[in-house]
């Protein structure tokens, strides 16, 4: 426990509902369907990563998702939120994960790292009916984390400074989230992330919507690259996304198998942004 406290891992991860998450964050899940690809995937939003009945209920075509806000001051959950507290997180992280947390500079980053990795262990342990601290992980050559002994169950982690997300499924999956905020130097960032057609859409958007629209594109693309297992070895500006209410891959490098029926799950667009995207299409 003391090593976690020295690392600044104080506070807890307060579980977010879908409504709470969508008000504060841009988020997206990408799935590469392996069975019945045309069937929409079902999202199961979890109030806590340790869900006892998950082992019996996580079916092919179902996604389990947990999101949480990182607290800066508390070690335990209070009566207003379900959440992951410090003691529970400390009990399941291994030495390598503790060392990685220790190397992070900011306290909030350390808390986010600990919460997301502990949340992944608890969620996977629930799905496999195994002790979370017994799970072993390995990485692909491009750094995608995976379970060492259970290739049929896949997961993805995202941790922003303010929040974390963990998603699992029985097929390739990626999750990403970003706090909704105004972005500085949006033009420069867009050159690195967005395809030319997407940059044009963002540039024509009302100024008040540009950052939110960019973050929509960004989270969809990062979720896709995580699910594919390539990360940023593929430049995100080589991918063209339809970021509307039913997001879709329009075009992508052949290595991403763009003809695959990639599926996305993302929050519904707020009315202003939906009106703009539909009008710009």
Features:
281 residues, alpha+beta, Ribosomal Protein L22, Chain A, globular, 37% helix, single chain, six-stranded mixed beta sheet
Q: What would your notes on this structure say?
A:
- By secondary structure, the protein is α+β, with helices and mostly antiparallel strands.
- Helices cover 37% and strands 22% of the residues.
- It is built from ten helices and 13 strands.
- Strands 1, 3, 4, 5, 8 and 9 form a six-stranded mixed sheet that branches.
- Strand 3 (42-45), helix 3 (54-57) and strand 4 form a beta-alpha-beta unit.
- The longest helix has 22 residues, at 107-128.
Topology, element by element:
Layout: H1 2-6, E1 13-15, H2 18-24, E2 25-31, E3 42-45, H3 54-57, E4 62-70, E5 83-84, H4 86-92, H5 95-103, H6 107-128, E6 137-139, E7 145-147, E8 154-159, E9 163-169, E10 173-179, H7 186-193, H8 196-204, H9 207-228, E11 240-242, E12 248-251, E13 263-265, H10 271-280
Parallel strand pairs: 3-4
Antiparallel strand pairs: 1-4, 1-5, 2-10, 2-13, 4-9, 6-7, 8-9, 11-12
Helix pairs in contact: 4-6, 5-6, 8-9
């Amino acid at each position: 426990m003391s090593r976690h406290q020295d690392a600044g891992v104080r506070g807890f991860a307060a579980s977010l509902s879908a409504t709470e998450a969508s008000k504060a964050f841009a988020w997206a899940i990408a799935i590469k369907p392996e069975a019945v690809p045309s069937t929409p995937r079902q999202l199961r939003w979890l109030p806590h990563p340790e869900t006892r009945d998950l082992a019996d209920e996580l079916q092919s075509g179902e996604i389990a998702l947990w999101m949480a806000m990182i607290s800066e001051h508390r070690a335990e959950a209070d009566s207003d939120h379900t959440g992951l507290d410090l003691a529970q997180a400390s009990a399941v992280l291994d030495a390598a994960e503790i060392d990685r947390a220790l190397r992070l500079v900011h306290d909030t980053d350390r808390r986010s790292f600990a919460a997301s990795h502990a949340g992944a262990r608890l969620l996977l342990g629930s799905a496999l009916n195994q002790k979370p601290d017994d799970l072993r992980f390995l990485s692909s050559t491009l750094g995608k984390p995976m379970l060492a002994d259970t290739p049929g169950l896949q997961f993805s982690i995202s941790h922003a400074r303010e929040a974390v997300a963990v998603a699992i499924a029985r097929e390739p999956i990626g999750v990403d989230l970003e706090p909704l905020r105004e972005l500085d130097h949006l033009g420069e960032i867009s050159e690195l992330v967005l395809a030319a057609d997407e940059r044009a859409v963002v540039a024509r958007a009302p100024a008040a919507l540009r950052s939110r629209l960019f973050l929509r594109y960004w989270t969809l693309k990062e979720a896709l690259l995580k699910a594919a297992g390539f990360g940023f070895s593929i430049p995100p500006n080589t991918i063209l996304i339809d970021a509307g209410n039913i997001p879709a891959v329009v075009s992508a490098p052949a290595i991403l198998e763009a003809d695959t029926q990639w599926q996305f799950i993302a929050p519904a667009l707020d009315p202003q942004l939906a009106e703009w995207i539909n009008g710009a299409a």
